[in-house]
């Protein structure tokens, strides 16, 4: 397995974990009854969905790149991935309170 394939596999695997946690988070919205919390929850859900889409798009772009340029895209994938993880952690912390 090439370094590129290993990196993509790692991010895809971690993305599955994030999506599982995200699914749990979305389920919490069904239990909320206070309108302000629901609106806040909806904003977080929208932000997380956007970051998941962005991460998938970057991975796809990297996957389609040739062997000479894929490493240039690796930093973008890592940055997008980091933003997704930070947003998820912030969201989980916000709604544990």
What does it look like?
This protein has about 100 residues and is mostly helical. The chain is about 85% helix and about 0% strand. The chain has helices at about 5-30, 35-65, 70-95. It is elongated and about 50 Å long. The mean pLDDT is about 85.
Overall mean pLDDT? 83
Overall helicity: over 70%
Structural class: mainly alpha
- Integer-rounded radius of gyration: 16 Å
| Distance separating the two termini | 43 Å
Shape: elongated
Describe this structure in a few short sentences.
This protein has 97 residues and is mainly α. It is built from 3 helices and no strands.
Lay out the secondary structure.
Blueprint: H1 3-29, H2 35-64, H3 70-96
Helix pairs in contact: 1-2, 1-3, 2-3
List keywords for this structure.
single chain; 3 helices; mainly alpha; 97 residues
């Amino acid at each position: 397995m090439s370094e590129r394939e290993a990196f993509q596999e790692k991010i895809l695997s971690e993305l599955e974990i994030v999506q599982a946690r995200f699914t749990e988070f979305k389920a919490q919205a069904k239990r909320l009854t206070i309108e302000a919390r629901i609106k806040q929850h909806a904003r977080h859900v929208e932000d997380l969905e956007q970051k998941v889409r962005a991460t998938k798009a970057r991975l796809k772009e990297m996957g389609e790149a040739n062997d000479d340029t894929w490493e240039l895209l690796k930093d973008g994938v890592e940055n997008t991935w980091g933003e997704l993880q930070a947003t998820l952690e912030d969201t989980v912390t916000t709604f544990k309170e």
